[in-house]
Amino acid sequence: MRGLLRRRRGIAFLAGLTATLLATASGLPAVAAPPRPADPLQRQVDAIHGTGALGVLAEVSAPGGRRAARAGEAEAGSWRPMPWNGRFRIGSATKTFTAAVVLQLVGEGRMSLDDTVERWLPGVVRGHGNDGRRITVRQLLRHTSGLRDVAPEVAALNSAAGYRAERLRTYTPGELVRLAVSDAPRFPPGRGWSYSNTNYVLAAMIIEEVTGRSWAREVKARIIRPLGLSGTSVPGTSPLVLGPHAHGYAAFGTGEDTDVTTLDPSMAIGSGAIISTAHDLNRFYAALLGGRLLAPAQLAEMTDTVDAPELGVRYGLGIAEIPLSCGGTYFGHRGELLGYTAWAGATADGRRSAAVYVNSDGGQDTQNAMTALVDQQLCAKG
Length: 382
Hints:
Blueprint: H1 2-25, H2 40-50, E1 55-62, E2 65-72, E3 88-89, H3 94-107, H4 117-120, E4 126-127, E5 130-131, H5 137-142, H6 160-166, H7 173-180, H8 197-211, H9 215-227, E6 249-250, E7 258-259, E8 275-276, H10 278-289, H11 296-302, E9 306-308, E10 313-315, E11 320-323, E12 329-336, E13 341-347, E14 353-358, H12 364-379
Antiparallel strand pairs: 1-2, 1-14, 3-8, 4-5, 6-7, 9-10, 10-11, 11-12, 12-13, 13-14
């Protein structure tokens, strides 16, 4: 795929050179190449594309309005541009949605952050040194439970062969938890920090126990519908990305890209299954930080952060606190689920928000360019 992109760039260069030579030979003035876009957002999107990302789309929302920019292809070899309001799997940005639902239930007095996992899911977290009686809901949301991450146990996420064999496999939440607790925890609850999708599978299960309704229904009823997030959905076991979307690609560390757009996301319930758009993510984070989803006490709990050494940031309850180059911090989350990588977040007052995603593996250069875009756009004036 990347070889194809290089060939296209070479063809475009030769075509421009030929046109210039013909114009010179005929005595006509050569036509200068069009200048690069002056818009800083477009330049930043182009910079991300230049790191090797197949396609990029970003959108920024501020008091003066919203702007979007795109670069690259929505499907390898298609020349089709990234759709302006394309849908994609937001991966771990789902965790902010899940944490917001839990905190709403806390605000309603229906549960407490200090409840143990055992209180709501008796006997579910047991064995090999794992003990739900010692783990609180707050520790789940903050990734201080010590529970191991289930993602390495999911074949479809870890190799091209695993993806082809199990892309349509459906997991139950209980099955995912059993896989995670089949080994010893990384550390005793509250004695460390380690990112684990298992924590949010359990949070989704607790939401169902507290409400009597599924995690998906609660996310729709409490967040998606009230905010009018028309491009956002919770697909359950459906392997399709419905509506306008770019294809997602993963190389699984081999250098050979696989189209991974089709995927049953049940392995990511609570932790990474939501489909959304850059526009909807901006609206969500702006509403959350702006106080439209949580009462002040619960928003304060969410944004009370601790050091997260694995990520190089501070982490609260389903949300990260990230330094801004212009001073202060913003809150948001990285998202990745096989073929799509995103960064989204908002300033602490919710007045400015930015979201960007790519539809291929995000190497370190791509990641750095994505975080730089969010930083620069949230630091911008106007």
